[in-house]
């Protein structure tokens, strides 16, 4: 339940909307009660004979209008809060996933953003609002009943407490585990469907349609079983609440004999009061579910940030030189050392090639420079300042990185390029495309820069996608560019063209070219070879 | 309707669809009518329970009216009997409610399950060509969320529509028998409801469809951004993306509110009608009482207490009103899914010859997108059984299209492709899949262990067969360094593995599958030369005794091919420009 509060605290920004919804709900409830009371009074033909019908006529429309606005206001407030929560969730994820999703599954993260955030609606709509109504009603009802019969007041009060507080509380506690099962099952189905559909090529090539279908069916069966469990609990809670309400009404009817006409108004009051809280027990079941979902939201978007910024980050130095000083590094404690006392100096404005076979740590070098990983010993300095003392966003604005996992988004070519430098002019976009040797291809597309690249850039061939990513890296105004195997997947001819463009494209930038070999056309200031966990200067 | 459109476009472009809801709205209408008929049958037990509950409610109201009359000293009988009846009926209604709820769930679940199976089958049948125009998240949203939204149509709307007709009619007959003027009041107020609902329903369907589209846009965008989250963070664009997410979420809110405004309006109509009925009856009874003309106070009280029960079925009907619109907008998408092919007549697979596989292209043309021109035109070649053919050319020259045709991902727009003389279009997909093994540029690895990912090629393979395949692909050496060996878990998209290692998993899959036709689509495009040489070595052993078609532009692969004396086909802009090597 703590996670529910944590999630709710992110809705504070919409407090005024939520409060407005609450006030309208409460006044709607009170008008409803008054309406029922006066209907009873009319019936009973009391002294209020004259006033009651007029009241009745006035309250009816007011009630109807209030209900309409109550529903609109509360829903609008709720959706505003949900939008805020989603944005908070995204920011939380982004802060923790600079290195990518890792072992997390996109479908699961999506399930949290969509379904688990949505599950929070019960908290406001079906718990907070009716609970507030119940808390307001209870003393009111008690006072009115007490004046007529203390026994009746106690009996009805007990039933109301049972239906509005005890039953929902029990239901919430009981459904905590089934709620988390439901959230997991929904995520499971989403992942299973995404696996089959993202992997349609593999599925077709391996004739795995039947298996994938079975997998989706199995996950669906699990979802339905979990939903059924929750649905049954909810139905049971609602049925019990109905019994509470009916026995309270029966009590009011039986005890009313002898009280005369006032009893009729009381009966109507009791009916209206239980009507106002009738959905609470079922909401209790959903609260358990919402709490489980809230935990999934909180877990994904909070918790420790890997390699957090220092409390008071140092100012970003002016320099664009990188220096690795005695760096020792391994990815996981049980893996072998990648670097063991690595020293490497890359002066500002220089062009440096770092060579080495697969597994020599070329990509680890970039990860360390971008603070996606931290050295075990030693430090990395940017312009003389240890990067551990800088804010990560400042550091990353200074360093551009092109690597194998650089992602093309399912958007237009323009939008993909602008990611590196929003506000770049068309001329600048085309210049970057020219440098990456892909401008001709883009020009030939009917939609030009507006052409969409497809999921993961799949509307273009591997080599074309690679060059688009390259253009994006070149467009960025980062003063240090780390190009990790920029030519992988390019034809030899295009590779040569690109590397010679790069010779002129520096404009004072520091360029770090990570490659397994050189072609001979590169103009370089220094060449290092990575081997045995250290860097050795090699002759150009 | 961005999503509906792109899926339809995906289907239309690949010739997989013979009807679209756009050009022929009858598709969606027919779908809805068909589902309505199924839903009506499935709803019968729920209708029975609903009507039974209406009758019980009337009985309970009568008990309550009798008790009220006693409270008012209008009736002097003993309270015990009506009180007992009231209690018994209340219990019975609670039980009936529970059973009804359970049955409601079961009805919706069964229909969702049926529709999801159908949708998933169709998407799997249509295959990879869908991904050229639709995002996998859009397709998943149809299979997962879209199907969930039709639950209410079957579980609530279908029974509510029938109960809302018969329930009030039953009560009306009862009322007319007791007091025909009161019956007129009930009838007049109830008649307001359908009129108001019909008025508010105009445009509601479109609003519901737009709302779902907004939801899908939000999902698709977010999933895509999650997959590339590192690229966003490293480019410092987190806040921009957060802003766009807020925009998408706000759009969703506005769209949802538009749907709800309509839905709530119909409930306003109901509230009004019920309030009018209550006020009219109460005032009438009050006046009669004052004038001393009230003959049966129990009846008057009963009529008042009956008002909420009379409107309850209409209220459920109105609450389920938007479920119907959800179903209508679902119909657009679900009826637009590519249809399943007619069941294959049982005929022998004409192609599988034991002595290897020969492939022939006869003036084959392929156009993905008319705006971008043909991807292939007039391509002809033959590959004999056991032969290796290298497809060479710059990126975009049509190499991948040839491979995709052979994989059955897409059908040629012109010409004919045969495998051992049989037209590829006539092959049973399962038989086709058995013939080919494929290693692409970037294999899709699923989250799970390396072993699971290899086993994907042939789930019934034994542990030792998987070990053999891993050894064949030289995965064993790498796996030994891992804490859990082949049982090490990799992330979605192969996180934790390098490009070369992922490619080795693909080779192990192909080795495990052991198919006679091997299709290699730039299998070393993303690898450095040392890794490439190692991967090529494994590939070379894989090609022994198989027919091989290799698409590449890599110098190493050419050298490899030259040393093997295979043929080479040079492609430019979708046409064969040169054929080298022995025919």
Q: Any idea what the shape of chain B is?
A: elongated
Low-confidence stretches of chain A are 46-51
Largest sheet of chain B: 6 strands, mixed
What would you call the quaternary organization? heterodimer
What form of chain A results from the Cα inertia axes? elongated
Level of helix content of chain B?
A: 55-70%
The CATH architecture assignment of the largest domain in chain B turns out to be Up-down Bundle
Unreliable stretches of chain B? 1-24
Order of strands, main sheet of chain B, comes to 6-9-10-3-11-12
Q: Structural class of the secondary elements of chain B?
A: alpha/beta
Whole-number average pLDDT of chain B? 82
Radius of gyration of chain A: 33 Å
CATH class type of the largest domain in chain B: Mainly Alpha
In the CATH hierarchy, what is the superfamily of the largest domain in chain B?
ABC transporter type 1, transmembrane domain
Roughly what percent helix of chain A?
55-70%
Number of domains of chain B: 2
The CATH architecture designation of the largest domain in chain A is Up-down Bundle
Q: State the fourth-level CATH superfamily of the largest domain in chain A.
A: ABC transporter type 1, transmembrane domain
The number of helical segments of chain A is 18
């Amino acid at each position: 339940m703590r996670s529910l509060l944590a999630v709710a605290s992110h809705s504070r920004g919409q407090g005024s909307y939520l409060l407005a919804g609450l006030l309208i709900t409460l006044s709607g409830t009170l008008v409803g009660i008054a309406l029922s009371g006066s209907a009873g009074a009319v019936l009973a033909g009391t002294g209020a004979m004259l006033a009651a019908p007029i009241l009745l006529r006035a309250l009816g429309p007011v009630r109807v209008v209030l209900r309409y606005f109550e529903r609109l206001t509360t829903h609008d407030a709720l959706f505003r809060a949900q939008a805020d929560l989603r944005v908070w969730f995204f920011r939380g994820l982004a802060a923790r996933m600079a290195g990518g999703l890792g072992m997390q599954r996109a479908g699961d993260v999506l399930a949290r953003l969509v379904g688990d955030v949505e599950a929070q609606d019960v908290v406001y709509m079906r718990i907070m609002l009716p609970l507030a109504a119940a808390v307001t009603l209870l003393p009111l009802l008690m006072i009115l009943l007490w004046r007529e019969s203390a026994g009746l007041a106690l009996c009805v009060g007990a039933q109301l407490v049972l239906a509005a507080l005890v039953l929902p509380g029990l239901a919430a506690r009981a459904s905590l585990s089934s709620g988390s099962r439901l959230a997991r099952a929904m995520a499971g189905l989403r992942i299973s469907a995404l696996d089959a559909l993202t992997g349609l090529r593999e599925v077709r090539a391996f004739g795995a349609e039947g298996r994938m279908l079975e997998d989706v069916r199995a996950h669906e069966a699990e979802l339905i079983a979990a939903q059924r469990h929750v649905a049954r609990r909810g139905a049971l809670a609602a049925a019990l609440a109905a019994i509470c309400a009916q026995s309270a009404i029966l009590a009011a009817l039986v005890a009313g004999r002898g009280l005369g006409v006032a009893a009729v108004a009381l009966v109507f009051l009791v009916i209206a009061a239980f009507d106002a809280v009738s959905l609470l027990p079922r909401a209790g079941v959903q609260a358990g579910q919402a709490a489980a979902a809230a935990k999934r939201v909180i877990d994904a978007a909070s918790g420790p940030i890997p390699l957090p910024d220092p409390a008071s980050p140092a100012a970003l130095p002016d320099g664009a030189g990188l220096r690795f000083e005695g760096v020792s590094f391994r990815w996981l404690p049980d893996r072998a050392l990648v670097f063991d006392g690595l020293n490497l100096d890359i002066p500002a404005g220089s062009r440096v090639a770092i060579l080495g076979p697969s597994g020599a740590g070329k990509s680890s070098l970039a990860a360390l420079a971008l603070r996606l990983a931290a050295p075990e010993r030693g430090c990395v300095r940017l312009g003389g300042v240890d990067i551990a003392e800088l804010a990560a966003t400042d550091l990353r604005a200074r360093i551009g990185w092109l690597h194998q996992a650089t992602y093309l988004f399912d958007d237009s070519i323009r939008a993909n390029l602008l990611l590196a430098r929003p506000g770049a002019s068309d001329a600048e976009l085309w210049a970057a495309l020219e440098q990456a040797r892909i401008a001709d291809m883009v020009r030939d597309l009917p939609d030009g820069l507006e052409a969409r690249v497809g999921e993961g850039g799949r509307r273009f061939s591997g080599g074309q996608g690679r060059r688009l990513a390259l253009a994006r890296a070149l467009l960025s105004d980062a003063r240090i560019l780390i190009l990790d195997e920029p030519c992988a997947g390019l034809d030899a001819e295009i590779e040569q063209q690109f590397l010679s463009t790069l010779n002129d494209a520096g404009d004072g930038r520091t360029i770090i070219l990570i490659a397994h070999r050189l072609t001979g056309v590169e103009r370089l200031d220094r060449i290092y070879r990575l081997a045995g966990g250290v860097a050795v200067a090699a002759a150009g | 309707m961005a999503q509906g459109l792109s899926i339809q476009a995906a289907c239309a472009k690949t010739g997989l669809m013979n009807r679209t809801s756009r050009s022929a709205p009858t598709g969606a209408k027919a779908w809805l009518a068909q589902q309505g008929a199924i839903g009506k049958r499935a709803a019968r037990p729920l209708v029975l329970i609903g009507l039974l509950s209406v009758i019980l409610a009337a009985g309970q109201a009568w008990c309550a009216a009798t008790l009220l009359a006693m409270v008012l000293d209008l009736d002097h009988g003993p309270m015990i009997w009506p009180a007992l009846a009231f209690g018994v009926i209340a219990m019975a209604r609670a039980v009936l409610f529970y059973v009804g709820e359970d049955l409601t769930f079961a009805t919706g679940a069964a229909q969702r399950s049926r529709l999801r199976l159908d949708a998933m089958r169709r998407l799997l049948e249509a295959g990879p060509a869908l991904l050229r125009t639709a995002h996998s998240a859009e397709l998943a949203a149809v299979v997962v969320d879209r199907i969930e939204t039709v639950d209410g149509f079957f579980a609530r709307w279908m029974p509510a529509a029938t109960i809302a007709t018969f329930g009030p009619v039953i009560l009306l007959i009862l009322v007319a028998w007791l007091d025909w003027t009161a019956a007129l009041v009930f009838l007049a107020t109830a008649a307001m409801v359908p009129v108001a609902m019909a008025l508010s329903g105009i445009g509601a369907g479109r609003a519901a469809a737009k709302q779902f589209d907004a939801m899908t846009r939000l999902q698709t965008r977010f999933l895509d951004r999650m997959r590339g989250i590192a690229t966003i963070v490293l480019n410092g664009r987190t806040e921009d993306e957060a802003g766009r997410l807020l925009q998408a979420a706000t759009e969703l809110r506005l769209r949802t509110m538009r749907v709800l405004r309509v839905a709530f309006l119909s409930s306003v109509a109901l509230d009004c009608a019920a309030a009018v009925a209550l006020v009219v009856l109460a005032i009438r009874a009050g006046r009669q009482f004052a004038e001393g003309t009230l003959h049966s106070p129990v009846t008057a009280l009963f009529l008042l207490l009956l008002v909420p029960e009379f409107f309850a079925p209409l209220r459920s009907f109105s609450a389920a009103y938007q479920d119907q619109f959800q179903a209508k907008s679902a119909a657009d998408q679900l009826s637009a899914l590519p249809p399943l092919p007619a069941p294959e007549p049982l005929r022998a697979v004409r192609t599988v010859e034991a002595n290897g596989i020969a492939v022939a292209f006869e003036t084959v043309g392929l156009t993905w997108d008319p705006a971008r021109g043909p991807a292939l035109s007039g391509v002809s070649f033959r590959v004999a059984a056991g032969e290796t053919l290298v497809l060479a050319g710059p990126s975009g020259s049509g190499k991948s299209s040839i491979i995709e045709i052979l994989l059955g991902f897409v059908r040629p727009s012109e010409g004919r492709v045969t495998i051992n003389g049989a037209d590829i279009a006539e092959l049973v997909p399962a038989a086709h899949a058995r013939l080919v093994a494929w290693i692409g540029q970037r294999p899709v690895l699923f989250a799970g262990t390396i072993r699971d990912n290899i086993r994907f090629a042939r789930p019934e393979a034994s542990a030792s067969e998987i070990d053999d395949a891993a050894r064949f692909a030289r995965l064993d050496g790498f796996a030994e360094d891992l804490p859990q060996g082949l049982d090490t878990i990799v992330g979605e998209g192969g996180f934790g593995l390098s490009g070369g290692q992922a490619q080795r998993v693909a080779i192990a899959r192909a080795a495990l599958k052991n198919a006679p036709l091997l299709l290699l689509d730039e299998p070393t495009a993303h690898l450095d030369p040392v890794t490439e040489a190692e991967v090529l070595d494994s590939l070379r052993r894989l090609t022994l005794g198989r027919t091989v078609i290799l698409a590449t532009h890599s110098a190493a692969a050419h050298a490899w091919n030259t040393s093997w004396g295979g043929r080479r086909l040079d492609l430019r802009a979708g046409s064969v420009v040169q054929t080298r090597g022995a025919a």
